Structure formats: C-alpha cells, structure tokens
Amino acid sequence: MNTTTKGPLVLITVGPTREAIDPVRYISNHSSGKMGYAIASAFLEQGCTVVLVSGPVGLALAHPNLSIIHVQSADEMFAASQPYFQSAQIVVFAAAVADYKPAEIFTYKMKKSASEFELKMVKNVDIACEFGQVKRNDQIAVGFALETNNEEQNAVHKLYKKNFDLIVLNSTQDSGATFGFDTNKITIINKDVVFQSFPLQSKQEAGRDITKAALRLATNHTP
Ligand code: CTP
Ligand code: CA
C-alpha cells in the first residue's frame, strides 16, 4: 500500500501476541482485538490511512486505505511497526502484548517426562515504551490500561512512563466490558490528568470516541 498519498497515517498495534515455547505450543492471553479493529474502522471513517499491526485474532477488515500486517510475537509486532512509526501522525497501542516470553524456543516438540518442568521466561520488548522514547512532539500516542486495582492511579502512571498523550482506561468493574465482549466502558485520560468517562457502549462507539479525542489533539499539534 502506498501510505504517502492519502489522509494522515495512523499506526495501530492490536490483538494478543503469541510467544512460542516449541513448534506446537505458545503463551498468550485472551485479547480479542475487537477494540483495536473498531478504532481502525473509526479512523478509516474519518479519512485516515491505517496500518494495523495485528496479532492473531479472528477478525477481518477491508478498506482501500487499510493495510493489515499479521504477526505472532511481540518481537515481530515491534519489527513490523518500525517502518511506519516515523511517518505516523497518530500511534495507537491497542495490543495486549505478552509481558514475558520463554527464554528459549525449543526446536522440537517437547516430550512429556516423569519429572516436573519449569519454564524460564524473559521480559519482552515494551513496544509503547520504545516508541515513546523517540516520539516527536507532533506525533500523538494513545495507550491502553486494563487494571484491576488502583485503576486511575496506575493508568496515569503508565501515561507518563510511556510518553502517551492519551491513555484509555478499560474498566473491569462492569460486566460486558471485558475480553471478547462487544461492549466496553472507557475513561480517556490526557496529560493534564483530565478524565473523560463514557458509559458502557459498543466497542464501535468507544472506537469513535477514542479516534475523536486523538484527532482533536493531532489537529492542535499541526504546525
Ligand atoms: N504495551 C506495549 N508493549 C508491551 C507491553 C505493553 O506496547 N510489551 C502497551 C500496550 O499496548 C498498552 C500499554 O503499553 O497500550 C499498557 O499495557 P499494560 O499491559 O497495561 O502495561 P504494562 O506496562 O505491561 O504493565 P502491567 O501489565 O504490569 O500492568
Ligand atoms: Ca502488560
């Protein structure tokens, strides 16, 4: 896809990552990718060009201004995002990246044995942090936080730590607002620690609200 001739470029990471243990096993999480795909749709509705770097999800989306790059692991997600970062005006980190990966990937399928087995895990690349360190002032970064306790405090801490302009706090308090559901209850927090809370709504609607907030900031940053 030629990403230079259309509307502002939006880079979005989405879905879970799969961290291989051996050729047939992996460690992952329950992310459905629905929120990230809804955000992609909302940006496309607004005339943006979207590059979606997607972990394995059971979703499809097609649009002339959309390019989807399918990846498995966090390392692949980071590498696939890199070529688009510089030219992206908005970057949305919607992926549920696995925090750890197995220290080594076994070349052959591991065999069951009589003894217990321990798996050594090492830290994965923090994609949002890496990009946050090189982000320009004219770029808008949007991150996510899914917290179970001290929700608002933890989200604000992540906003600053990762150099986000906005962080979307996903509430785990309400039923119908968790992994795999079609609804979400979000709070958007900006760098001035202003909270904008939304009711339980469809992920499509939440995607539009997130997109609107990001585009408003991007317009303010346009020289
Ligand atoms: N993120 C990322 N790469 C990682 C981990 C997280 O890009 N390796 C991004 C997520 O896409 C999200 C934000 O960072 O936008 C926060 O993710 P989260 O898992 O809530 O934060 P962590 O820093 O991993 O902290 P923890 O899981 O311990 O709460
Ligand atoms: Ca994490």
UniProtKB/TrEMBL annotation:
It comes from Mucilaginibacter lappiensis. Keywords: Ligase, Lyase. Its EC number is 4.1.1.36, 6.3.2.5. This is Phosphopantothenoylcysteine decarboxylase/phosphopantothenate--cysteine ligase. Pfam families: DFP. It comes from the Bacteria. Residues 7-214 form the DNA/pantothenate metabolism flavoprotein C-terminal domain. GO terms for molecular function: phosphopantothenate--cysteine ligase activity; phosphopantothenoylcysteine decarboxylase activity.
